[in-house]
Amino acid sequence: MHQGFGVVDQVFGFDISQMSSASANLVANNNSIDPSSIHGLFQQQQQQTAFNQDEKPQILNPGMISNQNQHQFVQNPAMLLPFSYSQLQEHHNSQHFSSPPPSKRLNSGPVGVNYVPKVFDSRPPELFLPRQHQQQQQNHQFQMLQQQQQQKQGMIMNQKMATDELVNQQQLQQATINPICQAAELIETGNPVHAQGILARLNHQLSLPIGKPYQRTAFYFKDALQLLLHSSNNSNLMDTACNLIFKIGAYKSFSEISPILQFANFTCNQVLLEAFEGSERIHIVDFDIGYGGQWASLMQELALKAGGAPSLKITAFASPSSHDELELGFTQENLRIFASEMNMPFELEILSLESLGSGSWPLPPCTSEKEVTAVNLPIGSFSNDPSTLPVVLRFVKQLSPKVVVSLDRGCDRSDLPFAHHVNHAIQSYSTLLESLDAVNVHPDALQKIERFLVQPGIEKLVLGRHRCPERTPPWRTLFLQSGFIPLTFSNFTESQAEYLVQRTPVRGFHVEKRQSSLVLCWQRMDLVSASAWRC
Question: Per the record, which residues fall in region VHIID (predicted)?
Fold first, then answer.
């Protein structure tokens, strides 16, 4: 597509469509226990126990001695092993002769009635650790709570700062865009002098296409309105050969860094391929041939068919006011060369769009029975003359094509007044530039894209709408009123379109399905939508 989103394919030298197991055996080498060694081990442990009892200081509570001996008895690992009768007898004898008699308790005197025994906390210091640990946990939880409260307060402050910054940005944006819309309204009401005064004051604020996306967009619309006031015939200068080279380079860069062209070409071509299944002769009526990159991609797919490539005929309608002969000649020659390399019978005819307004159709309503007709009808191709769309729809209706594919950039709103149309287009182009900035493209490449792609598209939109100020119904309403029926994209087309966009190395691009259309979005704003129709 050419109107603001032209296509350059790889046929022109551009590549567009490249669409432990460490678990060692844990063997513990469980050495078997020799029963004969148990006796010596038992004696050694009992001697050690007796030695400890001799040196252990006496404790006032005799029950504690008993409990202590029981505790040692349980902890003795030798007691966990089975013994024979002889071993048990030997153990009893050794216990009887080797253990000294228990020491007598110290008699501290008679115990009176009012005697209160002193209670000593005999627990070792280690037993106090849980209380200390509990206190440490409480302190830690308190500190964590303080940190969470501070973080929450910080998040609230950051959100407030972000909200305030967003509000300030919106206010600055409106302060820049509102004067442009006021100038457009003054031009619409026939007051060009006051409009020129507003635009002159904006020259100090918007002297160069620099800054944020909305500032650069505002600059281009300001220049377009000034061009509208100073241009006598409201026509663009013809392209020179050097200028054409720069434009092709800009399209190439745009197709490489943005998924817009790839999304648009793929969705439309996939619908056409499904409609052309089994056909030997294909006729495409195109209202936006651009540089022909879309059809070069289609030729590649058609050439892969098992039965051989079918013949392809393209009838392109172009307006002399928006298409230069040098550009059309370049497109025509390159498509012919590419078709020859594909061994595909090819024919290209270029007709004037203005010929449809005469009432005599340049094409017969009925074509060959073996020929399948399809129409490529982007809405942006009529931004130079919005009043032409109803006439074209009547012409397409009489062709009885098998399918009609269409694209909408979102900035073409001939159903709105001129000033509102300008405001809506500023928002749309700002979203486009914002998506380009997110890709971190080289500044030189971005400047060329804006100079040779974005700015001419804005000028064409402003000049064309001023030339045809009459409001028309929304384009979808016109399609329905003309007898067009929306078609649903196949599941394959939807999934492949989403996959294509997901390959973009920048987050923010996504595909949405709205009724019968597929929409490519940046963040929450539309970039381009594709739809298919039957009539």
Answer: 251-316
Which domains, ranges and CATH numbers included, belong to the chain? 153-235+416-470 (no CATH), 236-415+472-534 (3.40.50.150)
CA atoms lying within 13 Å on the CB side of residue 304: 6
Question: What is the C-alpha to C-alpha distance for residues 323 and 352, in angstroms, rounded to an integer?
Answer: 10
Neighbours of 177 (CB within 10 A): 20
Cα gap 514→501, rounded to integer Å: 17
Distance CA 59, CA 44 (A): 26
Counting as low any pLDDT under 50, the low residues of the chain are 1-123, 126-127, 234-238
In the block, tokens 């409609």 appear at 275
Secondary structure (DSSP) of 280-315: SEEEEEES--TTSHHHHHHHHHHHT-TT-PPEEEEE
The whole-angstrom distance between residue 491's C-alpha and the CA centroid of its chain comes to 20
Give the β-pairing of 281-286 and 311-318: parallel
Residue 82, token pair as written in the block: 């089975």
- DSSP annotation of 453 reads I
Mapping DSSP to helix (H, G, I), strand (E, B) and coil, where does residue 160 land?
Answer: helix
Q: How many CB atoms lie within 10 A of CB 104?
A: 7
d(CA 517, CA 312): 27
Query: What pLDDT score does 224 carry?
Result: 97
CA distances (Å), 353 to each of 134, 193, 236, 253, 407, in order?
Answer: 86, 35, 17, 29, 18
Q: Which residues pair with 285 in a beta bridge?
A: 315, 375
Q: Single out the residue of 280, 295, 283 nearest to residue 375, CA to CA.
A: 283
Which CA distances in Å does 4 have to 383, 449, 452? 10, 10, 9
CA distance 383 to 237: 18
Contact 322, 382 (CB under 8 A): no
**Listed residue (334, 260, 340) closest to 7, CA to CA:** 260
CA angle 177, 178, 179 (to 5 degrees): 95
Cβ-based neighbour number of residue 324 at 10 Å: 19
Instruction: For residue 350, give both structure tokens.
Output: 């270029």
Q: How far apart are CA 288 and CA 384, in angstroms?
A: 12
pLDDT score at 43: 44
Query: Which amino acid makes up residue 248?
Result: I
Residue 506 has what DSSP assignment? S
**CA atoms of 1 and 381, how far apart (whole Å):** 8
Phi/psi at 203 (nearest 5 deg)? -60, -30
The alpha carbon dihedral of 351, 357, 358, 359 has a sign of positive
Question: Which amino acid is located at 465 in the chain?
Answer: R
Q: What is the pLDDT of residues 180-209, one digit of tens each?
A: 999 999 999 999 999 999 999 999 999 999
CA distance 188 to 229: 11
Other C-beta atoms closer than 10 Å to the C-beta of 218 total 24
Rounded Cα distance, 162 and 309, in Å: 57
Answer whether 251's CB lies under 8 Å from 277's CB. Answer: no
Cα–Cα distance for residue pair 454/428, rounded to 1 Å = 11
